């Protein structure tokens, strides 16, 4: 039946037997089927709304009102689910006995009572009790689904159940909107307090629930055929009305009266079910209007399969514990259990990750999860019905598998990411909701096919286990710490996936008949003609295991031939007797093979004697020469070997051996447990192989015997826990390799850790033990490919452990690690491997294995593996090597050169090292000097590692980029070039390594010549490596200085900074400029003489100044005078056009010094006739000697400090009272900037020459000379030390650089243009920044050289200084 929109309101087509609808009239509430459908979903909707009415208000409002702890909230969520679990278990059988309508209404009415009593709660105990009884409403899901199943036929029952369940489940989402909205309305509009409002809010769902329950009882029927008690007779009557006779069920009936067989008919299997069509095949007495046409047998089968029976407890148990019921329960445990648990905590989870949402916002977002049931759960049911039409029940099961797996993946993703981004989190939750809720719909699309005669019990158990899952997951959320909420979801997702997958082996039972056990019984009986028609539990369990193996199927098992096979009944009887004799002989005792029995007792207890009759029977059944097999040539006959393996061996192993072996492995994965398992398997293998090797081998041949043994080993491997076996093997290999190869015994063999040197005899015994164990494990199938793979992994691990233990941080040069490692590989490692592998390889390959020692290619591969691991170790240590670099640790680089021979290894090295640099070096906490020191070491190390510079080019890029962003990089580089490496007074900030490098490479070529691509005269030229990057540039010479200089975008920036620092050093130093001369000459070789012309002039000025000063001193005779004491004046004459900008602060100097300057200038003009001197007072230095009453103070000070102290002496030699000076007075008298005055005063106070006077009685900021240290104030405890410390700090700050910085030069130039700005603002009024810039560009001769940002910064400084004002975006003169 195709879909048509008219089906949504049109009266549906009816199944003539059970009167179920074959479409869903959703929009037709007048029609009986439409009315029942809408009552079902809406009744469950209001029940779910009230059931989950607490969580939206519980986290904040109710918790605050009742003073609840977070654990109380979580406990209440668990309690609510516990009650529903119990109710659903009861509701299922109640539906079968009383009908789903009455059960539905009873759940609603009983559950409404505690809903109305919510306002009576006053504490946590009351809340727990109330939520327990409110949980009764959750049990309404079971009658909802049973009622829907009873009204809609199999072609649409999945869609109907998913729609009623999904739309009903959406009540759990709507409640997150409705309850906060009702609460907010009562608080804001009705002006109720929160304490009262949340209690009143629960009256609303109570009223609606009661109204729906009463309407359901009045307006809706029990079944499509009428009353529930008359359902059996109605089905019989429907059959009779179509002219069909047959027994459907005995009234009143019970579960023991399952549908039986009519003569000549079979029960419909699920494989046949999908073939049943509703085509008109045989019309009996006509068809009623709207009925579908069914065949006679189809009608009878439908009636027998779907009449619900009244259950008793004894009869319900087989249904509850059947595999089919357990499968649906397990799936619903994961899917619906996850939904319930997530519903309970989702609002709180959103509130934690997105605090801005608040209680209402997080509740609304959490509501989306439940609301999605409106669409997503029906999608599962609809898809299930569509698949069912084409593939039958198997399609529904396959869909359920797929949805479960995808749901688990989404839950794991949510837990791992724990996203704090709304779009990511909501998208993941929506995706998870799609597959989770669709899985719920698909599950209850499958439930109607499971025991249709007990649909209520199956629905109740399935629904209850869903609630049980919710409880389990809620308990996980309750007791797992909050810091691992992502782990909770991972557990939940990981739980959902395997529980869906566990369906697969159970579903294999349906290869014969998913529902009818009789056919399965008959098929099992065909395996052994001597068995009764109804097999015992043993044969059923054997069949179940056979069908789970993947390569076996009951249908493909050899069937008993027909009685005329071979053309003789006598021959058939003989065959049957021989088969019976052989199978009786091969039957394995139904008990455990105990390890303590040993091989000797196996003969007496497990190895049967084969008499003559049994031997003849085996020969008759097995031998190709026997008459029995000859007459059956070309026909499909019994395979005794296969029967023995799949029935006896497999059954005995699964029933008796596997539980014991699994228990041993679960106790631990140590070699002891593995050995114990091996012993059990060895004894079991002897028992299983005894008949084959002793009696059957001669008849079936060597190939069959070998295949039997191989299948037995496969049984052992694939049934034992793979992870436990692998862990045990790995543990054993590590332990033995650690002892034999002496590798990290502290970690792998603690018992031998204290022995410094192992006895060779002990090592030999352990080697023999290893080989014997491997031979034993190989004998039982545990030493094959699986063991070889584990062995390879462990030996790779042990090789790495050996290298780490022996060669870690061994960086000595020259490196001998390669030789020692190769020797160890050949003498120890390879020998151990070959001996072990010889025990795990089949005998035909033994000869090849013996050649391993002589196979140089294999040893070379192990050597390569060792070198790679050594290279990985050195790659991890490379950063430490570089940081600690000196010539003695080049061995680490030599080891790396063996490793970086492939593009992959080179790429790994550079990537790992770059990552280490970013994490450990290129951080704000690292100084520029430290980074440059490491960079120098990197250049040295990587030049040795790769002479072509490809690797250095890769790793240096992030460092170079980072250094360019540091403001002081140029200063430190240039300072390092000019530093004296022999000067012990160098601070840590001085890059002495660069000075040493400069001295070692005095003959380096010009830097620009390094960029040449080709040198045709170079006979050592080699092509670039294949892994060079597109930006790589070949370099024949790669040195530290060249790399550092190339950091800067142009050499002009470097030279400019060099000029500034050189000028500073030339002005500060008195003698010995050899270092500066040498550096200058070396840089001229790199950059050319023209680039450094200014620096050369500066140096020549200083050198010439010495000669000029000596000449002037001689001519002017500065060393004599009237008093015989004349200050010595020495000057340095600078060519200002070639020097960088210098500080030019002016102030008044003592008259004696002024006279000397005039005399000095006169002498200079006599020598240099065309030049004149301009004195820069701020750059001078003065040696001052002060004669005080009790001491003499001699200091070398700055010129402004000398001028200030000179101002405190009298104008003549006569003694005067104490001279007192104030700061304003000094500023005015000396015409000096105030900050220089304060600097000088602080300096002399620190030297205990001046002291500050108290105010009053003295004027503010008054100072005088401290003639004697006996002065009371100066003699106070601590004054001297504090003053000296202050003086030292002042000296440091006073030593301002002679050369102006770039910012100071900009400021100095900007001061010139400030007069233009003041004039414009005075004449034109307030102006914005843009207008000021435009006016300056028009009025300043030559144009205004600065941009908007520079001018803005200057004007803001003027505003802060109080010289300008700023208002409304305009600058103005401040009056």
UniProtKB/TrEMBL annotation:
Official protein name in the record: Anaphase-promoting complex subunit 2
Pfam families per UniProt: ANAPC2, Cullin_AB, MFS_1, TPR_ANAPC2
Membrane topology reported for the UniProt record: Multi-pass membrane protein
Compositionally biased spans, kind Basic and acidic residues: 530-539
Chain ranges of the Cullin family profile domain: 1044-1245
Alphabetical list of CDD domains matching this protein: MFS_NRT2_like
Region (Disordered): 526-568
Predominant localisation class: membrane
Keyword Transport: yes
Keywords: Cell cycle, Cell division, Membrane, Mitosis, Nitrate assimilation, Transmembrane, Transmembrane helix, Transport, Ubl conjugation pathway
InterPro entries in UniProt: ANAPC2 (IPR044554), ANAPC2_C (IPR014786), Cullin-like_AB (IPR059120), Cullin_homology (IPR016158), Cullin_homology_sf (IPR036317), MFS (IPR011701), MFS_trans_sf (IPR036259), NO3_transporter (IPR044772)
CC per GO annotation: anaphase-promoting complex; membrane
